[in-house]
Write a structure and sequence with these properties.
mainly alpha
Length: 168
């Protein structure tokens, strides 16, 4: 069996887990989400990843499978919600409000990067599962190709000069 690494966020969640048997499916998904992401690094966003996550979290694999009966997109949504919730708990609006816009953005982006440390492959696999991702890739390729010619009315636009950079 392959050795699985646990992300720092997963480790914190495991320490804070409750044993409440009455938790909702949404709560269960949030509880399992970091474990599923850890397993998705090796197994993709699959039933195997859910089973591995259930074993790591000490949850009945059948209950975990039921919680994620919606498949990969439900797993990915739960992982995203888990990271969002962790960010809300770690970064208060008051603290963020004291920062400049640039520093706020940097702090939030850095939190997300830190939250998925060790799970970059899970993120890559999640992006590959995104509905319409093949259309998005095709669109960005055609957009990039058209940028070398002219700027179409659609997705790519010519950079506009700001009023302060124009010369009269």
């Amino acid at each position: 069996m392959r050795a699985r690494r646990t992300s720092p966020l997963t480790a914190r969640c495991f320490d804070a887990m409750t044993t409440d048997a009455d938790q909702s499916l949404d709560d269960l998904r949030l509880r399992l989400a970091p474990f599923v992401a850890d397993a998705a690094v090796f197994d993709g966003w699959s039933a195997t990843a859910v089973r591995q996550a259930a074993e790591a979290a000490g949850i009945d694999p059948d209950v975990a499978a039921y919680a994620f009966k919606g498949g990969a997109m439900e797993m990915i949504a739960a992982w995203t919600a888990h990271v969002d919730r962790a960010m809300e708990q770690a970064l208060s609006p008051a603290d963020l409000g004291r920062l400049s816009i640039r520093e706020r953005i940097r702090t939030l982006v850095q939190f997300r990067l830190d939250a998925i440390a060790g799970q970059q492959e899970a993120l890559s696999r999640a992006l590959a599962k995104k509905p319409g991702s093949s259309k998005l890739r095709a669109s960005s390729k055609s957009c990039a190709a058209s940028a070398t010619r002219s700027y179409p009315t659609g997705c790519c636009r010519a950079p506009t000069a700001s009023p302060s950079s124009r010369t009269s």
